[in-house]
Design a protein that fits this description.
Two copies of one chain form a homodimer. Chain A is built from nine helices and 15 strands. Chain A is α/β, with parallel strands linked by helices. A six-stranded parallel sheet of chain A has the order 5-4-1-13-14-15, sandwiched between helices. A five-stranded parallel sheet of chain A has the order 7-6-8-9-12, with helices on both faces. Chain A has a two-stranded antiparallel sheet with strand order 2-3. In chain A, α3 packs parallel to α4 and α5 crosses α6. The longest helix of chain A has 14 residues. The termini of chain A are close together. Chains A and B meet through α5, β11 and α6 of A and α5, β11 and α6 of B.
Chain lengths: ~260, ~260
């Protein structure tokens, strides 16, 4: 079988690219297996901070793509690594769920439930409430705490619709504190892409990013000089005018088309 | 005793003007009593939707200013009355606390706890959480629900600091829904002031507004042609450069100075 592009590194977005909800997209398992058999390096990318890397690896393995946790890069691990560079071991308050909190603790941060912190970490958080918003405000008022967020998404697609994502929590904290988030690590930030490249141990020019969202996957890939593949199996339609504008290296109906 | 201005109607902001927390400001009871004894009409104005008009009347009475509920105008009653003009009896979802919900029910609205509504009412809500944010999003997605808010305040002063106010809830809903709030009824909107003028049954030019905030009380009074009195007993300092710019009719240390 022929592989569509010669690059050594392959980054795959997950939802809409590799699977849709609980079902693999056609040809996903075969394509990943063929890339690996040919000696290519593969990793998976997600903006969601709701699960651990191990959760994603387990899901992929269960669906038929055997994957280790170290082959997954999501916004929780990226945030933890980025903050480690900025302020290692800092006391932080987290607007986020357990997997993100666990990731931060594992990276040596002092996760507190009060305002005595140097950072407020803001994420997609289905347990967000007024008390957390107030703690974030007090952290900024009393300690001029800095704000960092996992991902910029307005909503998250779910079966039958969409639910509020990280942008809601970010907007609330910014509005009451009068302070802006200084870093958002998830797609389309180059921060998450750089962590993924480090994971693969390949250079950007020797790497492909495959995704279904022009405004994140393709924009981010172009900015860092990766080859880009837009799949039409997710959110983007084939008649989207941005396709001509952004000019991905390949536009294919789905992941299966990467094998000739 | 001489009264500083000849106007028939007198509107008083509450916190920082008539009282501070649980204590009347010096001369407040005497000044209000003198105005009433002279046949002037008095009402009290607040942006807070956390209490009913009866609650405010009871507090003022307890502190020494006998007041009826119909002499108080706050953002809950104003929102209910304004929405009654726009869409009487409409199904609404409320991001807000019990007093606001009670006010809306009394005004004939169908207050629902799901997304099957034409309006999302957004207020200062200490019980705000992700579930409410999600219901607001679904109301916009499914029914193109319109957004209306009680007040624009970023934070609310409390003893020893400040806590998140309505702007936090508004920003979160706007960010996830992609839709803007179309009306904010509280100060500095002319909507709350018009309700207050109706309550007093006086014309704007025959009315004075007395308050401690330039950007709400004074700006709003000027816009509608009321006489304006800035008291320096609250948030505004005497050296604030906006005083010269806005030129209130009177600037006084406190409410007591309204009596000669």
């Amino acid at each position: 079988m022929r592989i569509a592009l010669p690059h050594r590194g392959w980054l795959f977005d997950l939802d809409g690219t590799v699977y849709l909800g609980e079902a693999l997209l056609p040809g996903a398992a075969e394509t990943i297996a063929a890339l690996r058999a040919d000696g290519r390096r593969v990793a998976f990318l997600s903006n969601k901070p709701l699960f651990t890397r191990a959760d994603y690896a387990e899901k992929l393995t269960r669906l038929g793509i055997p994957t280790g946790a170290d082959e997954v890069v999501n916004s929780s691990i990226v945030l933890a690594r980025h903050l480690q560079k900025l302020d290692p071991g800092a006391p932080v308050f987290v607007i986020g769920e357990a997997p993100l909190i666990g990731e931060l603790r594992e990276h040596g941060f002092e996760v507190r439930d009060d305002a005595e912190v140097r950072w407020v970490v803001i994420a997609f958080d289905r347990t967000f409430d007024y008390a957390k918003l107030n703690t974030a405000l007090q952290a900024v008022r009393r300690h001029d705490a800095r704000l960092i967020a996992t991902n910029p998404d307005r909503t998250c697609p779910v079966e039958g619709g969409e639910i509020p994502d990280c942008a809601g929590m970010t907007a609330a904290v910014e509005a009451v504190s009068g302070k802006q988030v200084e870093v958002v690590v998830g797609k389309p930030s180059s921060i998450i892409l750089q962590v993924a490249l480090d994971t693969l141990a390949v250079e950007a020019r020797d790497c492909v990013i495959v995704g279904d969202r022009i405004e994140t996957d393709i924009v981010m890939g172009k900015r860092l000089g990766l080859a880009t593949v837009l799949v039409l199996s997710g959110i983007t339609r084939g008649d989207d005018p941005r396709i001509a504008e952004l000019a991905p290296d390949l536009v294919v109906p789905g992941i299966r088309a990467l094998l000739g």
